[in-house]
Amino acid sequence: LYVNYSAPMRLLDALPALPVEQEQGQHVNVCVGGEWHHFPSSFFLPGPAYRLAFVDSSFGGLLPADFDAAAGGTSSAPPYLNDGNRKAPETILADPSQCNYLMELRFGSDASGLEVGTSVVSAGMELEVAAVASFLDSGASPALTRAFYIPKLSSKKNTYGKFLLLKNSRKP
Questions:
Q1: 22-59 burial, b for 16+ CB within 10 Å, e for fewer?
Q2: In which element (H, E) is residue 7 found?
Q3: How far is CA 64 from CA 13, 80, 82, 116, 126, in A?
Q4: DSSP readout, 17-71?
Q5: In this structure, are strands 50-54 and 28-32 parallel, antiparallel, or unpaired?
Q6: Mean pLDDT, to the nearest integer, of 8-22?
Q7: Mean pLDDT for all residues in the chain
Q8: Confidence check: pLDDT of 123 > 70
Q9: Angstrom distance (rounded) from CA 154 to CA 160
Q10: In angstroms, rounded to a whole number, what is the distance separating the alpha carbons of residues 72 and 69?
């Protein structure tokens, strides 16, 4: 599991620690799109100033919401919660340019040539690659080497994409 699927956790390690004065001020938005289900938990963000945010994607279901202790925590339901798993616009960041960082998964030709320092365009923004980690392409890898890590064989048989941590250079 670590070799094939740990990319989101390794990208979180690449987020910078913030000075205390920033942590008391504005939030730093770490955005995810269609690959939101690979994100482990906001618990793993490096500090209280970081916030997980969602940008619009092809996913049409209900996205997770922030824990709100003031509203009763887990004993209350947000007004947009629905039992049909329908998308709620309240859970999506209306302006993707408010993302300080964007985590994105790319496979195949979309992933070629992307290294730290490369500029890319995503969600209508020009971003810089801050960190890259390999992530297993389960649809293009054999079941045996996908499920079990076999030294030397898994890396030859499996196909990998790139999980990217993109930094919005226009945001501090």
A1: eeeeeebbbbbbebbeebeeeeebeeebbbbbbbebee
A2: helix 7-13
A3: 22, 11, 12, 30, 27
A4: PPPHHHHTSS-EEEEE-TTGGG---GGGSSSTTEEEEE---S--SPPP----GGG
A5: parallel
A6: 80
A7: 82
A8: no
A9: 11
A10: 5
Separation CA 74–CA 161 (nearest Å): 36
Q: How far apart are CA 120 and CA 85, in angstroms?
A: 32
Tokens of 72: 């009763």
Matching residue, tokens 């482990």 = 40
Residue with the bigger pLDDT between 144 and 88: it is: 144
Mean pLDDT of the 138-161 span: 90
Query: What does R_g of the chain's alpha carbons equal in angstroms?
Result: 17
Highest mean pLDDT among 9-13, 36-40, 83-87 belongs to 9-13
In the predicted model, what is the mean pLDDT of residues 34-61? 84
Q: Could you tell me the two tokens for 163?
A: 């999980």
Residue 62's Cβ-count burial label (10 Å; 0-12, 13-18, 19+) is middle
pTM for the model stands at 0.82
Distance CA 164, CA 105 (A): 6
CB 101 within 8 A of CB 166: yes
